[in-house]
UniProtKB/TrEMBL annotation, chain A:
Entry annotated with the keyword Lipid metabolism: yes
Protein name, per record: Phosphatidate cytidylyltransferase
Organism: Mauremys mutica (yellowpond turtle)
Segments crossing the lipid bilayer: 59-91, 112-131, 151-173, 185-205, 211-237, 249-272, 325-347
Role according to the record: Catalyzes the conversion of phosphatidic acid (PA) to CDP-diacylglycerol (CDP-DAG), an essential intermediate in the synthesis of phosphatidylglycerol, cardiolipin and phosphatidylinositol.
GO annotation, cellular component aspect: endoplasmic reticulum membrane
Gene Ontology molecular function: phosphatidate cytidylyltransferase activity
Reactions catalysed according to its record: 1-octadecanoyl-2-(4Z,7Z,10Z,13Z,16Z,19Z-docosahexaenoyl)-sn-glycero-3-phosphate + CTP + H(+) = 1-octadecanoyl-2-(4Z,7Z,10Z,13Z,16Z,19Z-docosahexaenoyl)-sn-glycero-3-cytidine-5'-diphosphate + diphosphate; 1-octadecanoyl-2-(9Z-octadecenoyl)-sn-glycero-3-phosphate + CTP + H(+) = 1-octadecanoyl-2-(9Z-octadecenoyl)-sn-glycero-3-cytidine-5'-diphosphate + diphosphate; 1-octadecanoyl-2-(5Z,8Z,11Z,14Z-eicosatetraenoyl)-sn-glycero-3-phosphate + CTP + H(+) = 1-octadecanoyl-2-(5Z,8Z,11Z,14Z-eicosatetraenoyl)-sn-glycero-3-cytidine-5'-diphosphate + diphosphate; a 1,2-diacyl-sn-glycero-3-phosphate + CTP + H(+) = a CDP-1,2-diacyl-sn-glycerol + diphosphate
InterPro entries named among the record's database cross-references: PC_trans, PC_Trfase_euk
EC numbers on record: 2.7.7.41
TrEMBL record, chain B:
Region (Disordered): 118-186
Annotated Basic and acidic residues bias: 118-143, 154-171
Family: Belongs to the CDS family.
TM segment ranges: 258-275, 302-320, 327-349, 355-381, 393-415, 469-491
GO terms, biological process: phospholipid biosynthetic process
Assigned EC number: 2.7.7.41
Cited PROSITE patterns: CDS
Protein name: Phosphatidate cytidylyltransferase
Organismal lineage: Eukaryota, Metazoa, Chordata, Craniata, Vertebrata
Main location: membrane
Enzyme class, first EC level, given as a word: transferase
Amino acid sequence: MAGLRRRGAGDKDVVLGEKCGDLDLRNDSDIPAVPPSTDSTPEILKKALSGLSSRWKNWWIRGILTLAMISLFFLIIYLGSFMLMLLVLSIQVKCFHEIITIGYRVYHSYELPWFRTLSWYFLLCVNYFFYGETVADYFAMFVQRREQLQFLIRYHRFISFTLYLTGFCMFVLSLVKRHYRLQFYMFAWTHVTLLITVTQSHLVIQNLFEGMIWFLVPISSVICNDITAYIFGFFFGRTPLIKLSPKKTWEGFIGGFFSTVAFGFIFAYLLAQYQYFVCPVEYNSETNRFVTECAPSELFQIQNYSVPPFLQDVLGRETVNMYPFQMHSIALSTFASLIGPFGGFFASGFKRAFKIKDFADTIPGHGGIMDRFDCQYLMATFVHVYITSFIRGPNPSKLLQQLLVLQPEQQLNVYKTLKSHLTEKGILQPPLRG
Amino acid sequence: MPPLVSSGVGIPWVTASCTPLRTPIMAASAGELPTSGYTWAGRTRERASTLRMRLAEKDGWPRPPFRSCACYWLDPSPPSFPPPPSHGSPGALALALLLPGLALQRSELLHREHLRVRTAERKAPRPRAKMSELRQRLGREPDGAQEPEEKESESENKLDGETASDSESKSEFGGAPPAPTSDDTPEVLNRALSNLSSRWKNWWVRGILTLAMIAFFFIIIYLGPMVLMMIVMCVQIKCFQEIITIGYNVYRSYELPWFRTLSWYFLLCVNYFFYGETVTDYFFTLVQREEPLRILSKYHRFISFALYLTGFCMFVLSLVKKHYRLQFYMFGWTHVTLLIVVTQSHLIIHNLFEGMIWFIVPISCVICNDIMAYMFGFFFGRTPLIKLSPKKTWEGFIGGFFATVLFGLLLSYLMSGYRCFTCPVEFNNDSNSFTVDCEPSELFQLQEYNIPLVIQSVIRWKTVRMYPFQIHSIALSTFASLIGPFGGFFASGFKRAFKIKDFANTIPGHGGIMDRFDCQYLMATFVNVYIASFIRGPNPSKLIQQLLALRPDQQVHIFNTLKAHLVDKGMLASSEDA
């Protein structure tokens, strides 16, 4: 901050306020809005790559870190769903932290009383609310057994609302005379960040519970799209795609699209064979762990599809054996390559607006966690909406829980309706007379 | 003449406030002003007022002078925000008349101008004098924390003051004579009250408008749930419009391409999503009948998400190089407004469907608390409650609390006797209208309660006949009087932060719709959470609908579990066959 002030006091008539204004009729290259990025590349890498030129060095660092991240990802997948949940939670917290730090820097609100506490408190409240809803759904058996949890579940919304209200009242009481606007800005910033990061990370977890394949295929499609679009752009790139990100090209975009669809198709085929990926995650109350064991649903059973005539010549076959899920994977990959990049453009625009190069410096060569996950968020929401609209109906255990809470007369009513419905469909034997 | 670019006329006095160290301010118009290396260290306020006037004259009032966003945060006590531009521009005319022919060409001219303005200001009437005092004070004492605070509290007192005319003159641009208040009071009222003093006149205007609004409320209640829903919808749209207009004013984003369209488009999307969910729940049979409606409701989430995504992509494509931050701010502003306004208006509609009494009692409690706290404060008020709203007092707060609880008890007693208030609103498929006809639930049947011994001595009854709902109404009234005001403080803080007196000028004497409804929002959410937690369980018809959408094996599983449960409870004979 002192550096900024010094710069501001210089002959250029620019000021602290300027960098937060977008009145740039001049180039915005005058003021870096943040201190120069600290190079967090580990020493070991630096020594190993000291011989290469700067450009290749950067490329190698990025490459090595990419491989490191991918291997970490595989490791976590191997460790199971619970670890994945924890990973998602920690990523969410880190993304929140990164965005809030940017907000602090933009608004210079380090010195505001209470504000950091309140931001983290709101994060806690919203997470509590969402985890409570998830836990209640999926751990119904676990919850039934313990009295205190029963109480917490039954009045969950009320408790969450009370917690949130407390934070709200603390905010109102913490308004300091000269900093009203700043405090309101940070309040809004916190809420928008919560809306983006927390809601969507919970959608990711709900997708995960649907079956790990619903978690893996979208994420890998986005990553694959990133990498292949970069590669295609590197080799064939000529026409710029959008002014926001000058490095992206149409060739990369289209090449990435086709390769992502192909990749998604093949990857879905590979994963759909294993129960470990395909089955919904369930919590086994006896062994107190997550199990993924089931009879694979229709979606994951090989079926015969007849190839459309115009493809028959290409493939030379008349029918092909595929999983129905692969059709869905085409839809997912299409979204990942066509609409997913908009999440990336949004984040680029955000970084330009606030004149930052990266969200943070967590990953050497790549920037912050948010930089890696900006496209994922739109994808997570899409997959969740896709699942609820086209794949599965409502969650049966949640329904059951709600049923058990009804009034007895209403339960009887529901029972009778269900019974008549099942009898009609022939699933239930009609009641024996006599 | 250097073009004062429409997108950027900075208000240095505002940006000055960002920099307590008074480092040179970049003129928002840095591009336009000749960059002669002229720095304004130490001349922040004067420069500010000059530019402000130049801008106003050049741009034409009522263009608000703000340009940037986060530049206003540290404000010793800058002049307050000019009134929103949608309400006439008598000030513009005054300004234009007062400051003719400001030459904007060169910095020397600017300088002379600045001197001329300063002299003019010294001769200006009282409200302007305050600003010059401030400037002098700032000139003397750069970091005098005491006096600015005093001044600010004075100005805040002014803002909260009774007389609209005083505070509106304070909120005017510096340099102008107090612009005539944009007085929306109808002529009739004006004439009728013309002989009263200004203070009482304002009081009467407020009183009459209050009665008018309450009468209007009763009429709407009489007209039924459908009209109520439409009114809630209109209020929501108007609140959204008011808040977005403030955002536009703050960020000067009128001229941004697409942005107004996008804000309204997002409002439409979110409303479509929420109404779709409501409609699917409550109009289940109607929806099932019509084929297009059925498809829309089956894929409702997907369609809403696709609509929202379209808006999102349009936003990304509409990012213009020099206005990124502004656009992101407006995007954030729109979303927070949607979160506050739209979600909670839908919670109100959910409450309404639960039974009109769940809609009327909370709203009346909040209104009653407002009025009672004001009365108690008026007559007995002595100790200030919170710095944010200096007019509120502890006596008003506590008196209002007791009065509201009492009022809630009485009102719920009165209303619980009538079916049209206590029954859930249902849609009758045959008559295609809303009906409120049912067996009153236990909550609305008179029961005997034993009075605790403590109160027995006072009332000298052993038992009392009450509706159980009245107990709930105590909880609702308590919330309305203890926590509801925080919504009002939040709105007050918001108005102070953005230096506006009222959200808008829709209601004469009262301000905008948002001013009247700021406490209601917290209340609506609370009532909804309260109902969901304590009163009713999930909606049975919605459950049935979801049940029928499950796979057969899941249905059988649930059927068996339910059967076992009912048999346990003794509701079903265990001999009944599956």
